[in-house]
Amino acid sequence: MLSRHPYLDHPGPLAFAHRGGSLGGPENSLAAFAHAVELGYRYLETDAHVTADGVLIAFHDSRLERVTDGAGAVKDLPWRTVGAARIAGTEPIPLLEDLLGAFPRTRFNIDVKAARAAGPLVEAIRRTNAWDRVCVGSFSDARLAAVRAAAGARLATSLGPRAVLGLRLRSLAQRTQPRSQASAPAPARQQALCVQVPRSWAGLPVVDRAFVRTAHRLGLQVHVWTVDDPDQIRALLDLGVDGIMADHIDILRDVLIERGCWTG
Q: What band does 182 get if pLDDT is binned at 50, 70 and 90?
């Protein structure tokens, strides 16, 4: 039986609006998140960076240039400079704590993008009492460990990259050998409640039936990013994945409605 946490207390496959989705406004903007919520989304994905003076923002890139009219590395700039930049020239960069406060009934998946963001993120979760509606992940084992150390066991997290690799190796071993002979080690779970992965990496498949089955045996949900093709979404649902992150949140919603499992 999959381990339960208030974050997962939701029927059916979880639908995540990746960076707010691409329909209601530029990525990681309040407008995009608000539109996703209006469509019925109850899970939003975003990212955490911190400015030179310690202000925590919901922003994906380490630099401003790609998505804003500003320039420079976020970690080197004070909030007064970062806060003056506009996403796509129109939308302000939101404070992450403001997002948690603006959507109090919405759950957030937060990717920690910088080591210095770990402490401010935990403080923001504490101040907003958002423990039951936040799951934190990272592409860095060190950043994830820092968040876990600061937050304690109450905070939900996803597996870090080293544990994801261990899980994939275990699933491959169990696919090709009898379970009693499979030798790949089980990943260290700590307080992880899910594994969040792409469909494939470097041209190699990650999510298949063996991967999903192995994760479920360990009590982990499987969330897949970022999937916008309806046939791929259907195929993943057929494999039994527990959540999908999408930019084109209208497509993901339509497929879930078609399957009779849209619950937002």
A: very low
Domain extents in the chain: 6-49+99-258
Task: pLDDT band for 24, please (50, 70, 90 cuts).
Answer: confident
pLDDT band at 99 (very low <50, low <70, confident <90, very high): very high
Of the candidates 243, 225, 232, which has an alpha carbon nearest to the alpha carbon of residue 107?
243
* pLDDT, mean over the chain: 93
Question: 199 with 232: CB under 8 angstroms?
Answer: yes
Degrees (nearest 5) of the Cα angle 107, 136, 11?
40
- What global pTM score does this model have? 0.93
β-pairing verdict for 56-58 and 43-50: antiparallel
Domain 6-49+99-258, architecture per CATH: Alpha-Beta Barrel (3.20)
> CA 53, CA 162: separation in Å to the nearest integer?
31
Residues 6+ apart with CB under 8 A from 258: none
Residue 18 catalytic?
yes
Write the Ramachandran bin of 76: left for phi over 0, alpha for psi from -120 to 50, otherwise beta: alpha
The two tokens of residue 4 are 């339960």
Cα–Cα distance measured from residue 32 to residue 27, given in angstroms and rounded to the nearest whole number: 6
Question: End-to-end alpha-carbon separation of the chain, Å?
Answer: 23
Q: Please pick, among 18, 49, 223, 248, the residue that the annotation labels catalytic.
A: 18
Cβ atoms within 10 Å, residue 59: 29
Q: 36, 19, 154, 12: which is closest to 93 by C-alpha? A: 19
Cβ atoms of 20 and 245 closer than 8 Å: no
Q: Which residue has the tokens 């934190």?
A: 136
Q: Which of 5, 10, 60, 216 is catalytic?
A: 60
